[in-house]
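Take a look at this chain, tokens included, and explain the fold to me:
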Amino acid sequence: MLEVDREQVLAHRIAAHGLHRDETDPNTLAVFDLGLQNTQRDTAALSLAARVADEVTEESMVDDPRFVLAWTHRGAPHFHRRDELPAVTSALVPLDETDAMNRMLFQRRMVEAAGVGALDGLFATARAIREVVHEPMTKGAVSTAITKIIPSGLSAWCRGCQATHVSEQVMRLAAVHGGTRLEAGASPATLAPLEGSPPMRTEPDPAAATAVVVAYLRLHGPATPTEAAGFVGTTATVAKRMWPDGLTEVRVDGRKAFLPTGDVPALENPPEPGVVRLLPPWDPFLQARDRGLLVPDKARQKEIWKIIGNPGALLVHGEVAGTWRTKAAGRKRLDFTFHPFWTLRPAVKREVEAEAERVAAVRGFPELRVAWTG
């Protein structure tokens, strides 16, 4: 049995995620096998800038016809390769009622109380979206329209909106099954018909679901069913039904985990992780569910993964070495604040500041100012 330590695993993941910046074409990046999350306007572009050598702008993903933005994994917005979205959509059909209810995440109790099964509610909402969205419509307009035609239990009073409308998570999970995408770069969030969308599928596709787990293991492995389930948004029991063949058991600091057998040589001999990168909030590297492996100190985990308002992460020579935030000072200057977890050498700080220049350029700021808290 192969035994490795966390440093070797992190070196392997840095290479798997393309963070050595060896590629020039975004389409070749393995992170798109799962999708590139775009929770804020520029997070996907900054994740791209950390991985490709060519110039990246805020519009790089918006203007590239090879990619499409949609609410997919866990209802979060992800860029996917356009020609792979049908397979992703099939993978997102819950395996059964229990799986569907698990995917409701923070709104599970509301759906349970609705008196409508999670599967029935999901696809009733998807059919309503197909009926309503024939041209680009803001999220609010879609919500208002479908609330009138879906089962009443799937709606609730929203204090923020001061209105009764469909459950947020139900709508997000249903949108791609309803044949819609998100308009990349639009604010507020805007749904639009997905060109060439196939008829809605309601039967699960176990092979497609398993392909998502394989992609997770290739990017975030060695990993366990519980960790893969966390990415999918379900339970370990369900994830085991998606579990692929062709895996090798690996011991990571004594803990049992699994990796596709074909990736074992890459884990055994990963390249040195001698890179410095500024990872934005929700970067794919930070989406691994074994946060204790990425950042062993629990207090520091709380600094990186917050309930609201995650910072970016400093990746320094194989370790998450601190956090960073930015604030615009007018239209020309972007101010950076770096909070390292330990003292960084002057040469490393210079590398960090060079990456800050790249981030500022992505966001369209010709000037920047840097402050260090330690």
